[in-house]
Amino acid sequence: MRSLHLVLGLGFIGLILGGRCYTDYKYDTGMFTDSERLDQRLLSLGNCQEWCDETPRCKGVVLSPVDWAVRECYLVATTHITARSGWESSSLTNCGLDYWSKNAGKYLSGYSAGTAKYDSLLKAQSECLKRSDCGGITYETSSRKFTLRTGIDLKDSSSSEISWIYNRFVLKIAPRSGGIRDKRISRLFWPNFAIPRNLTGYTLNYT
After folding, report:
1. In the predicted structure, residue 45 carries a pLDDT above the cut 80
2. CATH 3.50.4.10 domain residues, the chain
3. Which of 19, 35, 175, 198 gives 20 to 30 Å between its CA and that of 132?
């Protein structure tokens, strides 16, 4: 019974989070057929996925090369996006417990030590997870770079920046008589959930 409750609980966590999840942007992918193209317009990386969320039948997004003066976003009705030199793509995927949350119009303070600016979100995310001083990533509209930041508190951006924070979920089952509980989650699907939070999000812990 405990295992069943755990599985149901994880499902409800996904519902609480809301929204849809995407794969990381992949370099040198972006080929699709004309019949799979839904629409296109000039948009930034983050806004491209938001547009897909609002568009029926959209299953993926494709971005023109980073060296174009203005990047073009294509919405496609497939997750099967094949190789295309210089282009990038991202597809809908099942939401996992660990994920990068996107926060439009927000920035994180301070640069991480060492190289802190990257052309690719995927590369920036990979490097951030290797560093102890990296709290997240901010896309700078001025430099058009994905930057590694030390801050963990999201702040309002006056220049339409976008930030990503890595969220790690911890699911801890506490005794009915003790433990810190998130009442919202407990009330919805199981009274024995205690959800401790650390600086980067939640950590998985099942006891």
Report:
1. no
2. 21-93
3. 19
CATH 3.50.4.10 fits 21-93, yes or no: yes
Asked whether residue 144 carries a pLDDT value surpassing 90, the answer given is yes
Rounded Cα distance, 157 and 48, in Å: 19
- Could you tell me the pLDDT band of residue 196, with boundaries at 50, 70 and 90? very low
Whether CATH 3.40.1820 fits 99-167: no
The answer, yes or no, to whether residue 176 has pLDDT greater than 50, is no
Cβ(43)–Cβ(71) under 8 Å?
A: yes
Give the number of residues written for the chain. Answer: 207
